[in-house]
């Protein structure tokens, strides 16, 4: 009896071990596919089976045959220069026609569902569309797409091929697939755990690599302009104001190189903004982007290295650090300058060591296929150094739209987005040595305000927009300090 019981126990143990070994074998053989997220491939020019509107070319056209560019990283922020492409010869998205479709009484239910996905009310559809910008994808891009079935929007994860035309919002996120009007949302799953399905006429396209797909993260601050690479002329870049369809484009020479600025000591967002202003992307070796206020401890390549438009700078980041700068000015306080603001002042020292102004056009040729990984983060301009490794400066917004700048602990000076008559600035009070407290200069638009002191690098003054000269700051004090990153622009440089 005892021997029989012992054999029975031994048999059960053997069965359990065999079950464990079988499970391990199944895992190793690839049967974990069920644990992966199914992603439906959508090739350029291939109609969807259940689109919001018929894909007959009336709403927009994809650019077929546009080879996917090698991405710096699977995660890129929407302000990354050259993330998207543009063209001056093709109408990639007819926004007015899409408005007509969505406001047609016969499409009332579609409009309700479309607006629900977009997070707006149906009566705001036209206003919402006016704020979007048409671009072409330059990378195979993950999104959450939507079919329209039985009166409802049905979400599904989708991989859009490079060359697909989309409308992006002011944070650089794809919002609408142009050819069919399908609303899009950001991909919200782990891109490392996807299984791409090529079906329904969407054959695997040339250049597809699962390791090369891109997920777009929102820009930390709303964009004023998007820096696109001209898909018809890789030596040219396009500066497209957000909410325009190409009629207000300006171009600049994408063959010019720009020196990497000194970013050590800035936050990750500040460094991203400084690089984006020069047409350079951010690279970060990690599965997730670091916190925006994490301190940058170094960059590869280092300050002063010339890079082409769209190339990436790998940042080393201390993720355990807290915020290293004072509070950021409100979004939009450092807006772009218009050509009517006048030529740049000779005393503006916002230049790289070679003497080029930081508004010079970045880059040359098509972006290289480097394997560094971009984050592309930007901020509201909470701090930077001059591109050539100049002294960090501290600035704060004034009620008139200008900024007060205190370069390297010197006398605060004022810069603004338009010339104004200003009295001499009051003396700055200091709460900690050696960093001075920046006191904003009163303007004709309102009273003087005093900003809190900062223990880290603060934001620098506003730079000119792509292809536009900067205005000469109106100030009765000393010459303005070096310019740096501002708010809401993907890149800067004169044509």
UniProtKB/TrEMBL annotation:
Residues 374-391, 399-411 have a biased composition (Gly residues). Pfam families: DUF6777, PASTA. Residues 61-72 have a biased composition (Basic and acidic residues). It comes from the Bacteria. CDD domains: PASTA_pknB (cd06577). Residues 61-86, 317-495 are annotated as: Disordered. Residues 331-355, 363-373, 429-495 have a biased composition (Low complexity). InterPro entries: DUF6777, PASTA_dom. Residues 255-319 form the PASTA domain. This is PASTA domain-containing protein.
